[in-house]
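Show me any protein, keeping tokens residue-aligned.
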Amino acid sequence: MTDLLLRRRAAAVPLAAAMVIGAVGAVAGARFGEAVFLVSVAIGAGLCALRSPVLAAIAMLATLLLRQAVKPYVPVDVFWLSLAVLAVATVLWMARTENRLRGVDAIGWAMVAYLSWNVYSLFSEHKYAPADELAGTTMALPRFVIFAALLPLAMYLVGRFTFDRTSAVRALLWTVLLMAGYSALTGIMQSHGLSKWVWPKFGVNPEARGWAGRAVGVMDQPVGNGVLLAIGIAIAAQLVCRGGEPNWRRWSAMAIALGCGYGIYLTQTRAAWLSGVVVLVLGAILAKGYRRGYVVTLSVLGMTIVAYWSRFTSSDRSEGGVGSAGEVQDRLNTIKTALWAARERPIDGWGIGRFRPVNTFHHQQWSQDVPWERGYNIVSHQNELGILAELGVVGLLLWVCALVLMGRQLWRAYRTLPDQGLMGKPLAVTAITAFAVMLNAGFTVDLRFLDLPTALVFLIVGVAIGCQQRHALEQRVPADEPDERMAFQHG
């Protein structure tokens, strides 16, 4: 198969995704028609994805993006179908592919250990039920464990093992970029009098869920939306400067990047804005050969903030302010509650999904200057402290171990991958940026509730690390032994 054919196939994947999104939006009006269409698309996509774990992984990302939007129109959660297809497609691919990476690496084993600890907590006895006592609702713990621990592990392994061709990486990057562009478009339309054309409709009225004046995107969550848009900017920069794309695709990527930047502003959320800054700073430092755009954008942004400093630090989000004493106080009280919970049960914590009841029956006050009621009966708004309170020191150490190993391997990828090529150093820069954006978001939200951003980051990280490990083997094994070079036990 020629390289031209591979490129055309890679381009067809995001184009098909865009057509699906547009068609779904076009039929919004007749629920029966929507249901028939969506079920047909899901079945067709599932059958196609069984032939390729790359397509299955991309379908999983699309499922996570649209899961909340299509829920009213389908009788079952399509996530479970996507997960089954991803597992079967990956197993079949590994069985028929001899020239591939072998074994689970240290990162994979760390994630397996973290998943096992989550399962242990799931089946252990705990003092409180995983319930919201005020609302009278109960958390579905098996689902929570799957999204918080199993799905990131699965996406990392699929990315590391199966994205071994340039066409596969290109298809992934363009699909994610289109997803980010569409999410940005919903926020822009919502803010400029085009709400009636927005799909899904929950983006039109974010006030109903406490997101007044914020662009929530397709995920219905401003921080998660900001993470997706920030990663979209990083991917666009790679495709424009180092992707080897034709001019029309480079201009398209540039336009989407501008839309993502504006979409981040429209989230009116500090964590999302900081994610954008993280992308610019890391790009200015790491993007060898194409950092000029990052530096110029960062300089313009800095001068704009200085010029409008008083407005920027105000609490009026409609005017671009980021000040919000109430949100800060919420987080301070939940931090104090998490630290109290860790002192009371340091080893195995209060149990998976139990932070809310702990924050209801043992709510703590940061100081006398912070009202006691701030942050009462809410979930953790800091990822690592939420893990510490629920899973104890053991759970936190396992999670941090996986993150440290990822960071170490990503830095190795940045140092050793070739400067050029879609699977070279630019991919490592994109993966490092996505990883840093996820960590940044974890300081303000519990990442375990953000299924798409976490799964997306673990997939991109897995792809970059897999490229580095294959490159290392190619450098190590003599050229006259191509059939044996992948039969190496990593870890």
